[in-house]
Amino acid sequence: MQKHAYIKAAEHTAYGRLPGRSAIELMGDVACKLFSDAGVMRQEIDGVLCGYATTFPHLMLASLMSEKLGLKPSYAHVVQTGGATGAAMVMLARDLIRAGRCRNVLVIAGENRLSGQTTDASIQTLAQVGDADVEVPNGMSVPGYYALLAAQYMHRSGTSEADLAEFAVLMRKHASVHPQAHLKDPISVDDVLGSKIVATPLHLLDCCPISDGAAALIISADPGEVAITGAGQAHQHQHVSAIADIYQTGAAIAKQRALADAGTSLDDVDYLGIYDSFTITLAMLLEELEFAGRGQSAALLRAGVFDAHGKWPLNTHGGLLSFGHCGVAGGMAHIVEAYKQLSGKAGSRQISGSRHKAFVHADGGVLSAHVSLILESEHS
């Protein structure tokens, strides 16, 4: 079995309102740019992994995108595991490479979720992660599910609304210098706390925006600048009502599996890409993953630990909270950014000091599906 798989190239479109461009067009745009960057010929792509799209729920989307892009893969598969889909596709691509099934795998996703779908349709579609008999009929929404988690977590850990607001401010700070980010205007803690309540205790600015956009990567057997050295998953529940302990959602299990797979530890990690659909998502994950003690993640943020030039630069593109959330591609942007920072391709946003090892974590549903990835620079 081949030891590693490599990220040969990673790209995304701008995120935000991109009217007149369908999910297929957005994915086509990013794929064409990716092929140019990677120096990989289309006939060399023998695997295609495509994320689902709520605005274009085609039953054979991977086959359709292969047709549109002029690809003839020996393996094509649509993956659907909520917000964890992007990381799960990268993990699967790595497994396909290491098993010798494929040599170059295109991982792609995109949606025109902002301009191509009404807000009501988006809310109703996403709410279906809830229990169909107990939760959905009572009018629950995704912000509502996370608000329940937030209320319990804040009570138990001592985390405050102001603590959560700090994460929204940091993500906006990072997005403000990224030309492709959805939201760039600076915000303050007071702005977050003063924004309207969406689902108590979550304010509007505690929630990620709905965006249009697409992202893609080429995972290859041929050596590249960034290797995927570890990966792990965990699935302990689907519904919020089935969570036995909010301190143990499964994130820590996925992390341990990825670290063991890579033969490394958190002490070696020097970049973080952590899923942040809501500020409470980010706080809970950072603490369950043990980058901070319970109730202490905001204190570390204020100390500069998660700044672009801190010990653990966090979501330096701005995360879902500010860079934007366009479905599967929203979570994939964390991987694209980690690749760019590790390979030194972040341009004017390149963080100081060489960074050698990134930890990326994504979750789908209501902290339901967890996927952790270890990415390592081949320059280290």
Report a brief summary of the structure.
The chain has about 375 residues and is α/β, with parallel strands linked by helices. The chain is built from 12 helices and 11 strands.
Descriptive report:
The chain is of the alpha/beta class and about 375 residues long. The protein has a single domain, classed as Peroxisomal Thiolase, Chain A, domain 1 (3-Layer(aba) Sandwich). Helix content is about 35%, strand content about 20%. The chain has helices at about 25-40, 60-70, 85-100, 120-125, 140-155, 160-175, 190-195, 250-260, 280-290, 295-300, 320-325, 330-345; strands at about 5-10, 45-50, 75-80, 105-110, 195-200, 200-205, 210-220, 225-235, 270-275, 355-365, 370-375. α6 (about 160-175) packs across α9.
Spell out the key features of this protein.
nine-stranded mixed β-sheet, alpha/beta, globular, 12 helices, Peroxisomal Thiolase, Chain A, domain 1, 11 strands
Q: Cα-atom Rg, whole angstroms?
A: 19 Å
Shape: globular
Strand order of the largest sheet: 3-2-4-7-1-8-11-10-9
What low-confidence regions span 5 or more consecutive residues with pLDDT below 50?
none
Strand percentage lies at: 15-25%
Query: Oligomeric form of this entry?
Result: single chain
CATH architecture: 3-Layer(aba) Sandwich
Total number of strands: 11
Q: Indicate the structural class.
A: alpha/beta
Counting H and I runs of at least 4 residues, what is the number of helices?
12
Please identify the top-level CATH class. Alpha Beta
Number of domains: 1
- Largest β-sheet summary: 9 strands, mixed
Q: Helical amount among residues, as a percent range?
A: 25-40%
The fold-level CATH name is Peroxisomal Thiolase, Chain A, domain 1
CATH superfamily: Thiolase/Chalcone synthase
| SSE order | EHEHEHEHHHHEEEEHEHHHHEE
